[in-house]
């Protein structure tokens, strides 16, 4: 070393002047740990699909085949609703109802009915009310089972009153279904038209009274002459309410994604198109949107098309995307996106894992030797994850992030 160098000489075995930087940068989020909070043994031998948390996170519901027709399901159903307490795992019995279900033969069984697993919760977090569209056969005669199908809509209060609040309303919509709220008690319900799968039908619902004072069959429905239209089948629906950076206060809009490769935002009051974003190029092998989630502030729409995750920023019009195969070290199939648009859960051959939506970086994984996973759902703030399996079991995990 030069004698003019003011720094003292150092040997190779001298201790460092400072601690070396951590291999985990300060911006790197801590690993996620899954704490099993509730484990519900199978209540039947059939799988649970379409898992959904209630808006307040108090309950989790899924679609299950009706017991008497479990082995004779068609594409339409019949299905019924299974609901559990998210805190205790206690099964909530379905309120009494009515209606006919359609399977390989006409089934005159009561209770909650839904076709294709479609249902939607009332947006009020203090409510546990669910809307269920279904197809009801209209018998031509007592012994004729080739009856035409009539679209009907029912709503059930799953709370302490446990009763139906909307009975057999003619409403030409099917799943997917979305329920959006308003401060005056009037809400919007959106579903896919039973006559044209490229159209979205929007209906107004008024729930009369509070959940404590509501009378049986007290809700009213008016199908508004408002329809959002795509060029192909609509597979995902959600509501967003202003104010947002791009939407006025008090405005309610329907966000839809379809096989035509577009995400469309439509004003629920007027049917005016507010946003139209091309997400994927339509081709012979173009995937359909498998899931969609809108952030609470209404500025971000997360969609999953096959194995591609697409983030649409409605305020700026920017579209970001990545392919799961480029960010994952091993196979994983998308399961659900958290309502706050932070996390993406995927099921694997050995269990499930959770990654950040924005970057695709793995946050944590959980391995088990139980039956294959069929459905999953995050609660409203992304602190719980419900997982159902092929044999009808259900597990709820707490997500520990620090």
Automatic annotation (TrEMBL):
Region listing for Disordered, in residue ranges: 1-30
InterPro entries per the UniProt record, alphabetical: WD40/YVTN_repeat-like_dom_sf, WD40_repeat_dom_sf
Protein name (record): Guanine nucleotide-binding protein subunit beta-like protein
Organism: Corynascus novoguineensis
Superkingdom classification of source: Eukaryota
């Amino acid at each position: 070393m030069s004698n003019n160098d003011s720094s003292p000489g150092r040997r190779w075995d001298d201790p460092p002047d400072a601690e070396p930087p951590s291999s985990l940068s300060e911006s790197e989020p801590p690993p996620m740990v899954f704490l099993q909070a509730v484990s519900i043994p199978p209540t039947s031998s059939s799988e649970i699909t379409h898992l959904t948390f209630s808006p307040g996170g108090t309950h989790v519901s899924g679609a299950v085949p009706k017991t008497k027709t479990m082995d004779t399901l068609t594409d339409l159903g019949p299905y019924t609703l299974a609901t559990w307490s998210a805190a205790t795992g206690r099964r909530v019995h379905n309120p009494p109802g009515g209606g006919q279900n359609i399977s390989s033969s006409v089934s005159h069984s009561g209770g909650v009915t839904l076709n294709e697993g479609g249902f939607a919760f009332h947006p009020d977090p203090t409510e546990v009310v669910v809307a269920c569209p279904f197809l009801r056969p209209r018998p031509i005669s007592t012994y004729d089972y080739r009856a035409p199908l009539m679209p009907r809509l029912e709503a059930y209060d799953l709370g302490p009153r446990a009763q139906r609040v909307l009975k057999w309303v003619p409403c030409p919509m099917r799943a997917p279904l979305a329920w959006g709220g308003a401060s005056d008690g009037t809400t919007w319900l959106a579903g896919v038209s039973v006559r044209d799968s490229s159209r979205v039908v929007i209906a107004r619902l008024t729930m009369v009274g509070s959940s404590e004072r509501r009378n049986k069959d007290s809700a009213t429905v008016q199908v508004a002459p408002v329809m959002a239209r795509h060029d192909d089948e609509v597979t995902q629906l959600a509501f967003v309410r202003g104010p947002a950076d791009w939407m006025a206060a008090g405005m309610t809009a329907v966000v839809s994604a379809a096989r035509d490769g577009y995400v469309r935002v439509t004003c629920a009051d007027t049917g005016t198109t507010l946003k139209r974003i091309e997400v994927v190029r339509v081709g012979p092998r173009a995937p359909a949107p498998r899931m969609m989630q809108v952030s609470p502030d209404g500025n971000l729409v997360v969609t999953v098309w096959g194995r591609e995750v697409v983030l649409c920023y409605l305020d700026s019009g920017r579209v970001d995307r990545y392919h799961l195969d480029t960010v994952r070290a091993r196979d994983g199939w998308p399961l659900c996106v958290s309502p706050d648009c932070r996390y993406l859960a995927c099921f694997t051959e050995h269990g499930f894992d959770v990654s950040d939506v924005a970057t695709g970086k793995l946050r944590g994984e959980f391995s088990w030797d139980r039956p294959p996973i069929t459905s999953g759902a995050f609660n409203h703030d992304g602190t719980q994850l419900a997982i159902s399996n092929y044999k009808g079991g259900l597990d709820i995990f707490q997500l520990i992030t620090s």
